[in-house]
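Title: Prediction job returns without error message
Component: structure pipeline
Severity: low
Priority: P3
Assignee: unassigned

Description:
Job completed but the reporter wants confirmation the result is attached to the right record. Sequence as submitted:
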Amino acid sequence: MKRTAMLLAMGLLLVLGLLSCDKNETIIDGGDTNTNVPSYVSALNAFSYTISARRLTTSHRIPLNFTFNRLQIAATVSSGAAGSAAFTLLGPSQQIIHADTFRFPGVHQVVSVAGVPESVVVSYANFTGILSYTLLGVGNFDSMTVSEFPTSTGSQWTYAVFDSLAQQRDTLVVTVFGQTILPGGIPASIWQLAYRSRTDTQYVNVSGDTVRFYIYPNSQWAQPNYLFPLWLNKSWRLAPMESTAVAQIGWVETPVGSFPYAYLVEKLWGGFNDYGTLRTWLVPNLGIVKLHRRGVSFGQANVVWELMGYRIVR
C-alpha cells in the first residue's frame, strides 16, 4: 500500500513538474466542482487524469506523448463507486497495449506494462465515483533482469500444448508449490506440471543472475537455463555441447494475447543420439509465454506450448 501511494504521489509530482517546462503538454482542467468533467495532464512520458462522476456513460480518446515502453500505472477509485470505468492504452497501430476496468473502490497498481502508448480511450458505463489514474514511463525494455522472472509460490500458468508428431493436443497447468533444498544444498522452488493424464515435477534454482530448471532432484544438468540480464544477441554456454542466445526481442502471439516485448531465447544442443533446439519466449514479470522443443533423444519430439492464462504472485 505504501509503495502504491508513493507511486501515485511521484506520478502526480512528476506531471505537475512538467507543466512549466514541456511545450508538448496538453492540459484539460475540469475544475474542482464540475461533475462528469475530467481534469487531465498529458505530458512527455507522463499522464494524470481525475474525474468526479455521477451516472456517467460516455467514451473519449486522449492523445499521449510517450517514448518509453516500460510503464507503470496506478489508480484510485473512491466515493462509493458504481458502474464501471475503463482505460485502454493504444499503440501507434491502434493495437491494444493494456486495458484496465475499475468497478469497485480501492487502490490499483500495475507494474511494468510493455509498449509505447499513443493514446488512451476512457469509457464509462453508468459510473459514479471519484477516479484518479496515473500513467508513467519509467524506462525501456532494452534488457530483462532476473527479478523479472517470476518464481514466487502460488504463481500459475496454463498452456495449450500441441505435439505435431503424435497429432495430440493437451492442456498443461504449471504451478509453483513451494521451496525445497536439492542435493548439494541447492535451494529451489518446486514446479508442478499437471497434464490431463499425468503430473510431473521440476525444480527451479535461482542463483545470482542464473535460472536453472532441473527435471530430477539429483540431476547434474539443467534444462533449460537462463543467464540474466537478457539482451539482444547475448549468448552463453553453461554446459558442454550446448549454446544459448537471445535471438530476438519483439511481438509474440499467444491464445491469451499479444506481447510486444518478448525475449526469444534459443538453445542448441548436440551429442551422440541427443540433439535439438529449445526456443522459449519470455516476457518480463510474466515468464515463459511460448515454448517450442524439437529434438531427437531415443525418439523424436516437436512440441509447442502457448500461454492460455496465468496468475502471478508478487
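Comment from assignee: result matches the submitted record. Residues 2-18 form the longest helix (17 residues).
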